[in-house]
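Re: the multi-chain job from yesterday

Posting the exact lines I submitted so nobody has to dig through the queue logs.
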Amino acid sequence: MSDQHALQEYLLRLADSAMILGQRLSELVGKAPALEEELASTNVALDLIGQARNWYEYAAELLDDGRDADQLVFLRDAHEYRNLLLVEQPNEDYAFTIARQFFYDVWHYHTLTRLVDASDDRIAGIAAKAVKEATYHLRRSSEWVRRMGDGTDESHRRIQDAFDVLWRFTGELVTADDIDQAMFKAGIGPDPEQLKQDWHNTVREVATQATLTTGAEDAWMYLGGKRGEHTEHLGHILAVMQFLPRAYPDATTW
Amino acid sequence: MHDHQPSSVDVLIASDRVPANAHPERLTEAAIWDLLDRVKDPEVPVVSVVELGIVRGLSWDGKHLQVDVTPTYSGCPATELIEELIAEAMRAAGIRDPQINRVLTPAWTTDWITPEGRDKLRAFGIAPPQGSASKMSLLGADEIVACPRCNSEHTERLSEFGSTACKALYRCRDCLEPFDYFKCI
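And the result, structure tokens for all chains:
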């Protein structure tokens, strides 16, 4: 595996995770539990889709096969997507939406904090912008986890359920494969051991404040999203997201 | 009858157009900054792109004017529109083919909003960012945000996000007005 190939794959992972979570959050338009939360969810979605575009544009330049950012988003099938399994999980109730966001935000924040110092200037530049947004996202989702966990019996039960169900997808965030290792060695990606430790520390700290319990670090985990092996949900997301540009490939505005 | 001699009108137009690029001294950098200062942010139309701090540089590259612009947020939907508005203002001043470059580094910070920009935001009913962008203000302790209408510091945050990605929603507990706060990043 060349470094160039690893870098392309790594960029697609960053891009696809941000894009798919952005698409998931966009589903809340018109049906979030409160107007403020609809604004918040869609603004987070906007940040993520904007970041995704920056990653895709760089990936497209490196791939250099004639595809642009739009084509990478709209014309790849599920097995070509490299997003984390966590972000393709459905919104369910708002506790699920928040728990998913929180687990992702913690990973995103610690990853971007490292990418800011990447040996690749382009990555460092995109990360420097994104980390400000991700920091704000983490502040918001942490607040919600605390509010729900340390709230009413009902809110506590729901967010605890969400933590329990989604925990099985969190191992992938901090389990490094050969591409993550190659990016670390190239002075780009985070130290996998450090990232794992940071992620667990932050999650536990907030969970404790929220009176929630987290799963075991060595619990059985679903892996595979980063290699293109997805849960049943991704195909449905792509069907909605890609229908228009696939049906009307000549349309330039919609 | 097919006379290829340019008509006097063509000559006039040509002579009118060419110098703006060929002789950049006709438009000094200061004059171009003034033009840019008239281009308003489409989402917050009281402040200009200069006051917002998103125009990062001007230069002449041979015949082409280069304008470096940085987006406020990665996903700011006004990015393309702002670039087009800037290009349009440059063309209207006779500058042919201005090049608008999107630069991401260094990342925009609310620290770059000018004092005039902050005053205009406040007058428009948007509380300007408080103090300097730091990790503390991003992660942290709630800032004290003064109500842009009555100046009371007795305010509360209703939502981390307001009508656009760059704003949060607040409410004044004294005059009871809700207002947008331009987030500090």
